[in-house]
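thread: overnight batch results

M.L. [08:02]
morning all. the overnight job finished for the chain we discussed friday. pasting input first so we're all looking at the same thing
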Amino acid sequence: MMLKPGAFYHFRKSRVISRPGAVLVEQFGYEIGPEISESRALSVVQGGGDVYTPMKQDAKALAKKADPSGRPEYDGSHRARADQRRPSVDEEEIFFPHYHPGGDHDRWGHVFFGARGEDPDDPPIENIPAAGSS
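M.L. [08:03]
and the structure it wrote out:
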């Protein structure tokens, strides 16, 4: 899949790969889904869902639009906390850098961007502790 700067994409932690009517089979590591419009991306984030865009500035702009009353909170790449780990996934799972609209981690979805574990504003990933750990 070729990602386009300025475009937005559905983002899910897993993809269903089974055929309709078959036993449900999900595969992890394929979070970035089909392209969606910016207005649809905004609606997804405001509804608590997650989206992806390749560019940091587009992620920040969308996060500002999602909750114009507050500044978006940048959350760089970090390792998964215990409550964020998925079954059968490496405990060292690393997230994409992302924004939380208005800094609210519960009300809105995430606006992910860039590459997993990489961002120029972040320290090298081997130095990144799990989020919320000391």
